[in-house]
């Protein structure tokens, strides 16, 4: 019996040390320590094991959230331009908008006051961008490029088919099997309090729950409210004001007016055939060849073949069909190399039917 009591005491002590060593908001730390004190009082009762599991799980989430951990923003405009141009063709207005924001951050990062003191990392509220466009126009990939440009972690929260607001806000610990919402989970995965959080396809939530989900979105995105966002599981406000939220949507018809009022909508235009040819030649083909393990210089596509690659079956607003077609070409070349050995393959209008999909 004594050894059992000793094991229980060690469990509680280990949990208490974990909380005491972690930098937490004072009120939350006091709340956790009170819970641990209560565990000591009930350590001999029948329900102790269940109570310990609940308190331990709650403490684990609390101590592993980035209450004061930030990543250092990369504010090099020249490097940012190179990354954008490497990853994306065109989209000049969107690139300019992000570079403007980085410029404001740079000017505010170190500002001399009248007393000659330096204010480090003065906070500048981020714009809440919403990229709106048809499928395949690059809404999600531009968000990942923005995170790369700024040197921030990025976490994605998908909204397609979302029907329960508790998915975002979490469930109270009074319920069995309760857990935090996706926002808190994203912060823990990122490990910083200033990541980029991508709210993907916010227009595709379930109709029956649209009003309540849009209400949670307002709280997430409103500068006056998100500085104290409260997850039901955590039951303590977390400051989301330094998070860079980016939303995507196919259209605005299913997004509430209150949410749209807090977003900066940016249209992602459909690509012309000429733009797709440029993207296919300079961006997609080199990337797909590398992913397929094709040697450099083993594949050449004649210029007059590209219109057929871009539009093999008809019009597509984005580049997904283009990517699939180029992937198919590279797979065929890979098979030919394996069967016949390394050599150069040139696709022309005379032999293109061997490589392009036909139905």
Automatic annotation (TrEMBL):
GO terms for biological process: protein quality control for misfolded or incompletely synthesized proteins. The lineage of its organism: Bacteria, Candidatus Shapironibacteriota. InterPro entries: AAA+_ATPase, ATPase_AAA_core, Lon_lid, Lon_Prtase, P-loop_NTPase. Gene3D superfamilies: 1.10.8.60, 1.20.5.5270, P-loop containing nucleotide triphosphate hydrolases. It comes from Candidatus Shapirobacteria bacterium CG08_land_8_20_14_0_20_39_18. This is AAA+ ATPase domain-containing protein. One of its GO terms (molecular function) is ATP-dependent peptidase activity. Residues 125-273 form the AAA+ ATPase domain. PANTHER family: LON PROTEASE, LON PROTEASE HOMOLOG, MITOCHONDRIAL.
């Amino acid at each position: 019996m004594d050894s059992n009591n000793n094991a229980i005491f060690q469990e509680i002590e280990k949990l208490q040390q974990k909380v005491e060593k972690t930098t937490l908001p004072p009120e939350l730390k006091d709340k956790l320590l009170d819970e641990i004190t209560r565990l000591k009082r009930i350590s001999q009762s029948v329900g102790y094991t269940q109570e310990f599991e609940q308190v331990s799980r709650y403490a684990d989430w609390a101590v592993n959230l980035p209450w004061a951990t930030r990543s250092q923003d990369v504010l090099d405009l020249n490097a940012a331009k190179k990354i954008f141009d490497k990853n994306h063709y065109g989209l000049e207005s969107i690139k300019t908008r992000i570079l403007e924001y980085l410029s404001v951050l740079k000017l505010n990062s170190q500002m001399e006051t009248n007393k000659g003191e330096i204010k480090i990392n003065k906070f500048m509220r981020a714009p809440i961008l919403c990229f709106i466009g048809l499928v395949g126009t690059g809404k999600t990939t531009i968000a990942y490029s923005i995170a790369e440009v700024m040197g921030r972690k990025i976490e994605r929260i998908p909204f397609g088919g979302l029907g329960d607001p508790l998915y975002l806000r979490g469930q109270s610990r009074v319920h069995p099997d309760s857990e935090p919402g996706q926002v808190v989970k994203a912060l823990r995965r990122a490990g910083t309090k200033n990541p980029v959080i991508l709210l993907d396809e916010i227009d595709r939530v379930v109709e029956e729950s649209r009003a309540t989900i849009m209400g949670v979105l307002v709280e997430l995105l409103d500068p006056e409210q998100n500085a104290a966002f409260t997850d039901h599981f955590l039951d303590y406000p977390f400051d989301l004001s330094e998070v860079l939220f980016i939303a995507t949507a196919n259209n605005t018809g299913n997004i509430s007016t209150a949410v749209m009022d807090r977003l900066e909508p940016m249209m992602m235009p459909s690509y012309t055939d000429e733009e797709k040819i440029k993207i296919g030649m300079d961006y997609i083909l080199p990337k797909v060849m590398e992913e397929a393990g094709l040697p450099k210089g083993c594949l050449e596509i004649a210029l007059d073949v590209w219109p057929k690659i871009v539009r093999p079956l008809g019009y597509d607003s984005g580049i997904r069909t283009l990517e699939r077609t180029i992937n198919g070409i590279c797979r065929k070349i890979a098979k030919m190399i394996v069967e016949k050995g390394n050599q150069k393959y040139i696709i022309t209008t005379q032999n293109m039917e061997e490589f392009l999909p036909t139905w």
